[in-house]
Amino acid sequence: MKILTLWQPWATFIALNLKRYETRSWGTHYRGKLAIHAAKRTIGLDGQAIVSQVNDLTGGKVPRKPRDYPLGCIVAIADLVDCPQMDSRLISRQTDLEMAVGCWQSGRFAWQLGNIVALPDPIPYRGCQGLRDVRSETLKILMEQKT
Fold it and tell me: Which residues constitute the domain of residue 67?
């Protein structure tokens, strides 16, 4: 299983099944299980603005206070099912919500997530940039929580 670190509130948006694509400037050939890790970085002004926008689009489905977003832990597991490079056709098929929670520009990559499962108890974890393997001791805990 691989792990991907995201800033909050985007990691929680995935855990809540509100964000089905993680948009990146780089693609990957990896397909399979992906742990979604919330970085230790606190929510800044850009994150607070997107929380407000997502609440408007979803009727208030996300926490409003930055302290309600877990930091430095794995919050969900998903399947990375595809990673197409964005073009105008793919971008035009996105919902207003998906457009709000991603950076949709031609040439970037849309990491398509499926089978998203929020963890009932986020697992503390030290993340890092890039796509990495989950440490073996954490992988065992993840598999126990998922069942």
Answer: 2-125
Is the pTM for the entire model greater than 0.90?
yes
Residue 95: C-alpha distances to residues 20, 49, 90 (Å): 11, 18, 11
Return d(Cα 143, Cα 147) in angstroms, integer: 7
Nearest to 41 by CA among 6, 68, 14: 6
Residue 34 lies in a domain: yes
As a whole number of angstroms, the distance between CA 103 and CA 23 comes to 6
Classify residue 64: in a domain, yes or no: yes
How many whole angstroms separate alpha carbon 112 and alpha carbon 22?
Answer: 7
Instruction: Output the pLDDT for position 147.
Output: 47
Residue 138 lies in a domain: no
